[in-house]
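During the reporting period the student researcher (J.K.) took over the structure-prediction task from the postdoctoral fellow and processed the backlog of single-chain submissions. One of the processed entries is reproduced below for the supervisory committee.
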Amino acid sequence: MTADRIALAVVGTAYHTPTPDRLEVLDDVVFAVTAEGTIEGVHAVGSPAAEQTMAGAADVHRLTSTQRLIPGLVDLHIHAPQWPQLGTGLDLPLERWLFEYTFPLESTYADERFAREVWSHMVPTLLAHGTTTAVYFASVHEAATLALAEQCAASGQRAYVGRVAMDHPVGTPTWYRDKSAAEGIAASRRSISAIRAMGSPLVQPIVTPRFVPACTDHLLRGLAALAEETETLVQTHCSESDWEHGAVIDRYGISDTRALRALGLLRAGTVLAHGNHLGDDDLGVIRGAGAGIAHCPVSNAYFANAVFPVRTVMAAGVKLGLGSDIAGGAEPGLLSQCAHAVTVSRVLHDGVDRRLDPHLRGVVDSRIDAVTAFHLGTAGGADVLAAPVGRLQVGCQFDAVVVETASASPLRAWPGIDDHARVFEKIVHLARPADIREVWVAGRRVDATRITG
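J.K. obtained the following structure tokens:
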């Protein structure tokens, strides 16, 4: 390390979960961050390397004794156009929810001015919740999709932004779909080019077929070829609910996972949202392809008809992260999703029908704890995307969140009672925007309170 390479030194105590079973406490350290936002060193305060870092850094930022640094959260699944719908319309099954509530709302993003108003509220709000990396489904509209990418870049959020492609004459309404498969592929190609032309180091395009029931074979195969040609990641839904999982089997005679593989869409870095009805064979296929799953615990409670088996999926060696699934998931913050992931794992373990004997009621060995859940919301999601974020270690980008543990909120560390492990657990279960003091992306502090709309 050379001192003249260091643009930022951050001094304080940090928590991260580099593996699903390990909380690493970085107690009283100095992070050395380059101008490109890369962590080049992590040094104990008082060491020669720490002194050299602080002496040479252009900016030295010190956390207080009651503040803790955690990695920025990685949200693998957000439906950006559904932001105005957040917290409403959760009374219908998925297939009706889409046609009666969601598609009508998404169609309004033909109005670019409205789209920009929504994006300018949503992106800073998500940053205020600690979401430093977001994977977005936009709408079918090219202008609205580009506007979302521009807002992410302007706000300083790391993002993957995808124009939604959908053309099926039965699976979509006549008034909200691509006019043809050829036009959907062409529009997605133009969207990829437009986002890349922005030149933002933080924002990338992602190929986004909504899901198999909303797309014809021509569109699905064309998007797979487009992703291959342009070296672009892919996102879609997979085996989310009884309806969606069954619709694919009815259409092809095989599971959603195998259909996506046959169509060319299952590849390294593909983000599969939900996956509640995946079989053991499906997990092997996903692992072999190098794809990953976005577990959406709150949304799944409303629409999935099953509890996602985190332990089973992890044991199968499948890459796994978390998603809020706004607005099917009625909470925007990923820290709360970590807490909900713990809760639903206990529901799966213990079962729900009291009429059954306890040993028959649940799926044993399904529980996860706060360490595992936080790993999924940070490093796990980063691994799905092969992105150098989610961990506070050398070689990763300095995407980080400063949390106050002595505010007026329920999140409070009590001296003599709470050790580091307990403080970390409290952060996972209790931290909200009021407790988040600063958000950093690529070594730059972002203004997560500035709503521009």
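The committee noted the following: The mean pLDDT is 96.
J.K. will present the remaining backlog at the next meeting.
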